[in-house]
Structure to design on (172 residues):
């Protein structure tokens, strides 16, 4: 388990299409950081340069969980984006892509959260009959979104510096 540096100013989440896992992590962490008053910049990108779109099953469930992603525009990962202070891979395939194509070592999302490595697989990796089993797809999407949202406060706590109580009291 790696511990991110507490001087993080910019975070980048990486997945395949930037329409499900990295998107969820971006919006969940951003919401948590706003809640605690942090100005850390949070972004996401996908490894595939393909015009993916956020599916209603994702956007609707995120909206139900309090995250409005209607303004999201997917982005394709570029070397310049790897200048973020913390780059986080959502699954092992992204760790491999970052290493092999960009010579960059990134932790898995769960590791960045202080847990053991646990990839967050995409629908086609987790649901063998994804093309014909919409219930299983929906269950996987919801479980993945729930897991990312559940861990966002944990990651926020690992990358933010708590306010100095002495300085905080002096400003009252």
């Amino acid at each position: 388990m790696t511990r991110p540096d507490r001087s993080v100013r910019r975070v980048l989440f990486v997945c395949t299409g930037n329409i499900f896992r990295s998107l969820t992590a971006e919006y969940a962490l951003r919401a948590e950081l706003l809640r605690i008053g942090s100005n850390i910049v949070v972004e996401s990108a996908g490894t595939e340069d393909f015009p993916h779109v956020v599916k209603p099953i994702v956007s609707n469930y995120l909206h139900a969980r309090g995250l409005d992603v209607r303004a999201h525009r997917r982005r394709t990962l570029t070397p310049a984006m790897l200048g973020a202070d913390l780059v986080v891979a959502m699954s092992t395939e992204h760790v491999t892509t970052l290493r092999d194509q960009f010579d960059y070592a990134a932790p898995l999302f769960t590791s960045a959260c202080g847990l053991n490595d646990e990839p967050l697989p995409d629908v086609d990796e987790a649901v063998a009959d994804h093309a014909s089993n919409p219930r299983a797809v929906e269950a996987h999407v919801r479980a993945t979104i729930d897991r990312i949202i559940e861990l966002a406060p944990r990651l926020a706590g690992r990358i933010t510096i708590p306010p100095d109580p002495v300085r905080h009291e002096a400003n009252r």
Observations:
- The domain at 10-164 is CATH 3.40.50.2300 (Rossmann fold).
- The beta strands are 10-15, 41-46, 86-89.
